Amino acid sequence: MTVARSKRTDVLFALIALLLFLVPAAINRSPILYPDSVGYFQAGKAATSAAHIPLSAHPTTVPGQSGPSAKMGIDTEDGVSDARSVYYGAAFALSWAVAGVWALPVLQALLCVLAIYAALGRMAPDAPRTLRWAVVAGIGLIGGAGIFATTVMPDVFAGLMILAVAMIAIYRATLTRTELLAWLALGVAAILFHKSHLLLALGMLAALFLLGLVTHRQRWASLGLIALLIVAGGLGQLAFGLAARHAGLTVYSPPFVMARLIGDRTAEKYLRETCPQTHYATCRFLPRMPMTENEFLWSGDGSAVSFATLSAAEKARICDEQWPIVLGTLRSHGLEQLGKSLTGVFRQIATVGVTEYGLMPRDALTTLLHPDIQAYHRSGIGHHTMPLRLISGLMLACYALGGVALVILAARVRGQPGGFQTLSAAHTRLFEATLLVVFAVLLNGAVCGAISGVFDRYQGRVAWLIPLFALAILMEVASSRRGAAA
């Protein structure tokens, strides 16, 4: 096959894979919008407004806005929350301004197709190209990557960040300069798009260092590049807070850790014991407890009071109380909390799906997205016909089967004379990349299950990596056997 024909074939297969990634959105008759999608759009609108980039010829200020935050398109009563990345929000807002609500999901799907195929090219270079493209399409269609790619949320970038770090960590020496820069850019973007991705990257950096200690082969260049990636993303997150404060705005981070302890009821016990003496502002929530972490943070229905309904000054006070309450709870009820946290971790690791995407977005915060959200009510999710449970079941099956396959493959290699020492250099790299990714997937479950809460989309966003690496190993083993037989 000539080079030109090979490229045309790749383009054709890439388009087919892209279409299969878009199947969930086609079934829904719309890209998936989640309640948080509106928050990201608001954050993006604020960023573009601050940069004097108009999104529309029509006025974009929500009636009633005034004061310094109106200049950035942010509600004055709430202050500025860093819970929604302005970077992902800006990507959403700008792509929406150019080509509507479909623009960002299509770009995300295309990015997934290219990233997964590029990774397979390094992990299973001897496998037939058609087979690699088939794996890409399968991961998008039934593995779960497709529905996350076509949802206007940064969830898909958790898996892409793990993939990028694994490629840099293990395959750096084999990457071209263009590939290396692309993986670095993807990793930095993922960290800028969500704070939890920074924790995953830090965990993978530590795991890579420990892997080097075990194998007596430190990859110092890879460690340095991943550290650079983390620093760049972290500085980008800090830059937002500094810019907002420079504009005279109040910036706060929702007290996620304290909220989780309240949901676990250990913080409730601590507050009931200490509120008569400490007079924490958080004590005002005691009459409503027990309450879940989401009820504490976001519930604002009717006369219910939550963190989200408080003034900026009240939010700042509760944020200042977070760590004293968390530490006090751990001192008083540490063993109970440890048990509940471990339960949450194991539950989260085993909880995979997208049923949470059945929640409908609200458009009370913005006028620009109003037509899109109104149209979304006619989508499959709006009519409750979107098969989210079926999609979740397929994802869970792929995740479980991929995990079982990895365990069996590892056991077979270990059972051979010489064990892992007999692996070729290529197979050793693939084994180490798989080990790093499996660790990151488990770490994702640990972070979300212990700190945030148990929700199927949290583990679903990275679950597709398990069947991807299992298939990569199977393809590489089959290719090696064919080469040996020839």
Compile the SSE list and pairings.
Elements: H1 3-21, H2 23-28, H3 35-50, E1 80-81, H4 86-99, H5 103-123, H6 129-141, H7 145-149, H8 156-171, H9 177-193, H10 195-215, H11 220-246, E2 251-252, H12 256-263, H13 266-278, H14 293-297, H15 312-350, H16 370-376, H17 388-415, H18 425-452, H19 456-463, H20 465-485
Parallel strand pairs: 1-2
Helix pairs in contact: 1-5, 1-6, 3-4, 5-6, 5-8, 6-20, 8-9, 8-10, 8-11, 8-18, 9-10, 9-11, 10-11, 10-18, 13-15, 15-18, 17-20, 18-19, 18-20
Structural commentary:
This protein has about 475 residues and is mainly alpha-helical. It folds into 2 domains: about 5-250 and about 365-480, no CATH class; about 250-350, no CATH class. The chain contains 20 helices and 2 strands. A two-stranded parallel sheet has the order 1-2. The longest helix has about 40 residues, at about 310-350. The chain starts with a helix and ends with a helix.
